[in-house]
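Work Package 3 (structural annotation) set out to generate three-dimensional models for the target panel prioritized at the project kickoff. During this period the team completed the workflow that converts sequence records into discrete structure tokens, so that structures can be stored uniformly alongside our sequence database. As a representative example, we reproduce one entry of 249 residues exactly as it appears in the project archive.
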Amino acid sequence: MATGDTGGTLTALGKTFRIVEYMTETDGSVRITELATELDISKSTVYKHLNTLRSEGYVDKDDVAYRLSPRFIDVGEHVKDSFEPYAQAKPAIDSLAETTDETAGLVLEHDRQAVDIYSTVGSHPEACSMTTTRHLHCSAPGKAILSTLSDESVDEILEEPLVSLTPDTITDTDRLRSELRRIGERGIAFARGEQRADVNSVAVPIEFADYQGAVYVAGTASRLSSKRLEEDVPGMVLSTVREIEAKIA
């Protein structure tokens, strides 16, 4: 949920975006009843919002279920192409994915959420394709970003209950704060099965003009573990961050 200035906003439009965000995080199609239950909005209201989005071409209907349409891809591509951090980081991240043969990407913090700006997958047949959860506390790039924020900002983010995505997700705030201190000292964050039970990741924070972010590599626990996770890949991510920083300096 966005957390910016809410003065002078439209409640109805806010509900529309809540629906879109839920659909974004859900694989496949969703039904009106599910949206109404999960978002605590009446079914009639959900129907009206979906019908409006459908009339504007942003939602498609499959029988009795709804899904986001390709129009969002078009909007996203236009935004991405003019977004400086994406343009500055993409070549180096492409190279990182090729070198590690894993998923490599760039995440930025926006409105207390992790936004996966760009990710690409190496050519190894066992490399996993994935995107980063919006929750900052349960991924390597999210924790890398949290480690760079002020204590006040972290306090505000941790006011909300920490969602548990796997049995290994850190939901204890004291434990998380302790880990963030270690990440801040070392400059490298790790996540071992915290977003997906079978995936490990490593990330290094990076600062752009208006955004705090992190470059990451993620892969299956069977491939990205031990020395490769703790030493080899972190060195590659650090080199990638330095390359991007030299470009934006």
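The first strand starts at residue 30 and ends at 31.
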